[in-house]
Amino acid sequence: MRHITCNVNNLSSLLQLAGGFILGIGLWAWFEKGTFDNIAKVANVPVDPVLIFVVVGAIMFILGFSGCVGALRENIILLRFFSVVLGIIFFVELAVGVLGFVYKDWFRQQLDNFIQANIIHYRDDPDLQNIIDFVQSYFQCCGGEDYNDWENNIYFNCTLKESRGSREACGVPFSCCKDQGNNNVLNTQCGYDVREEEINDIKLELDSMNPDQGCVPQFEAWLQENLFVVAGVAIGIALLQVFGIYLANSLVSDIQAIQALW
């Protein structure tokens, strides 16, 4: 029984530390942005990408805390909570994986809708902006299906060029530009005017953009190329969860067996 208690405690402590770290990053990002300084920013919390860190971190921390305390105090309620929640997470992940394979076209559409929705709010949140720039730079893509998706963002909409004279109008973010190789100076204006019809062909001939490579097809290609790595990581996480469920249930059985002797 002692070695099972130690294993549950070690696994729970690791989960608790990881959850606390992720939660800390999320809360720090919120305070840095002054999210709670006024009501207007609090209202935008549901669309803030930092919310993912806060929710995931909080769940991991609470789950790790319940497993750790449950093992040390031999508390059956906390251990069962740990086991049940871990089981729910496991089956949710399994369901998402199966449904993602069976209904891949639907998931592809949802991914595209998600990207389109976030393109609209590109300038509204610095964290969201950094995430989009990272994704477009890493996958060498632009927009959801193609670079014309940036027409949906008010700052890059072509109508602003005439009405307000916006410099970013009819353009795309700099993260849509191709890697300039050894050029250490970041050209943040490389995406200006690339969607303007009279100069669009010239821009494309310069081969400085990734115009036709949307992030959805690029992500699909990346997933196919790294399928074994992704599958290996997913299986590893699943086995760790199953191991945690097994340890928690074994410890509960041992505790109940000892209590039956009283």
UniProtKB/TrEMBL annotation:
The chain crosses the membrane at residues 12-31, 51-72, 79-103, 227-248. Keywords: Cell junction, Cell membrane, Cytoplasm, Disulfide bond, Glycoprotein, Membrane, Transmembrane, Transmembrane helix. One of its GO terms (biological process) is pore complex assembly. InterPro entries: Tetraspanin/Peripherin, Tetraspanin_animals, Tetraspanin_EC2_sf. The keyword Cell membrane applies. It holds the Pfam family Tetraspanin. GO terms for cellular component: adherens junction; cytoplasm; plasma membrane; pore complex. The keyword Ribosomal protein does not apply. It is found in: Cell junction, Adherens junction; Cell membrane; Cytoplasm; Membrane. Disulfide bonds join C142-C158. Gene3D superfamilies: Tetraspanin (1.10.1450.10). It is a multi-pass membrane protein. GO terms for molecular function: enzyme binding. Its main location: other. Belongs to the tetraspanin (TM4SF) family. This is Tetraspanin. It comes from Branchiostoma floridae.
